[in-house]
Design goal:
mainly alpha, about 0% strand, Serine Threonine Protein Phosphatase 5, Tetratricopeptide repeat, 21 helices
Amino acid sequence: MKKEPIIFFTLYLFISLLFNATVHSTFSQITKNDSLLFLLRKDKEDTNKIIHLNTLAWELKYSNPDTSIILGKKALAISKKIGWNDGMSNLYGNLGTYYRLKADYNNALYNYRKALKINVSIMKGAKNYIEKQKAKNGIARTLGGIGNVFNFQGDYPKALTCYFKALKVSEETGDKDMVAGQTGNIGNVYNAQSDDPQASPSEKKQSRLQALQYYYRAMKLGEELGDKKRIAIQLGNIGIVYWKLRDYSKALKYYFDALKIDEELKNKAGVARHIGNIGIVFLELGEKQKNNIKKDSLFNKALEYYFKALKVAEEQGNKNGMSIVLGDIGTFYMKIGKFPEAEKYLINALVISDSIGIINETQTFEFSLSHLYDTLALLKENNPALNGFGTLSEIYKKALTHYKKYCMARDSIFNEEKSKEIGRLEQKHEYEMAELKHQQEEKEKSRKLAVKLNRRNNLQYSAILLGIFALFVIVFFVVRFKLPHWTTELVVFIPFLILFEFVLVLLDPYIEQITKGEPLWKLLANASLAAVIFPLHQFFEKMLKKRIS
């Protein structure tokens, strides 16, 4: 048996066992992946095999990114072998995504930058407009991927720089889908920036309003594209901002609208996200409720939604989603006084967020644990019999340790210089967008003027041509009358002179283009044209005289 069939048989067996052993893959996904594996065993080392490997890798990215990396590298090796640059750029970009999902940010950036370099090379060597536009779209997509890495690392100025660059390229190419994606990403940065604990309430509100502005733009573009998944994402984002603004009725409206769409699309990641967010709103509404029966009802609803969200995230193998929901459940138990449960869920959330390098979530969980141990320390002081959390000094030590870690994470994300940098980037982007809009308007004006001039010139050329034709007809009849010799010569000469001048006018733009307007070359071109036309002029003049004599 050949080596390659053995590899794919082993891979097939591994994936089949993986899918059968876990509950997070639906029957339709298994069928699709089985079909891809069947095709892979028959594929030759060509673009079809690359496409099938890439598709299978992308399908497995959430449940098993390690397998996605193996498949992606196999496809990349074939792309290199056959010299398929488009395939290489796409595969490097996808490998960047798989590594990002594993929180291996160095490898993620390495692969994204390789994809970017190839796309820039393709753009520079593009033979036509379509190839160039395709390469530019690849550049925008890769810049967005790099921005996502910086965003997950909490480096918001760098993330924003990448997103604005990607948005500018997308605007230039007119790729609405990419524009919508980058617009939403920029909204995410402002949304995250609004959580800066050092910012004033007015600064936080301003960041949230900026986030809303970008989210609404992205949603409108999604509606224009008929992209329901994108609409659901932005509805969920808008809901988050309204929740932060404590407008709970609007937050719930947007969450439920987003949930309805994602349930229709069977988008489990989106469903988990919205359900978890709905749980948060019910928790906070319960805290504000004075009626104990209503309070308990809202708390029960919150917990019900949290566990639904956790189940969906676990089915998907979505570690980021799992850490967020576990943290929400921990916070819930802390608020209702169930401290052992709170500690358990918050620690689990922190372990996962640390493992995948989501620093924004890590700082939230560190703060929550610090707050939990502070609360427990106060309770221990008042009730020394409190058991299960260690001695009073141990509890205070835990509180201090988590608070220090929270401060380190917070300071790595938020500081005054980063806030200023984000402001500068926003101003720069606004200027660049205004400049781009002005250039596009000027280009459109020039295009309309060119069309108008072209139409006018065509009409005039047609009129002149008809006039010359009519002049020759008149000459043909006039010279039949007995006229002095010099008059006949003049009457025959004038139409040919006008025709010669018309040919010069007609060819002048092309001569200008070839000679680049240099007088010497222009004179030589006109002289060459005259040398060609003059014998023709004499020939046709003799023919005309012969016919009328």
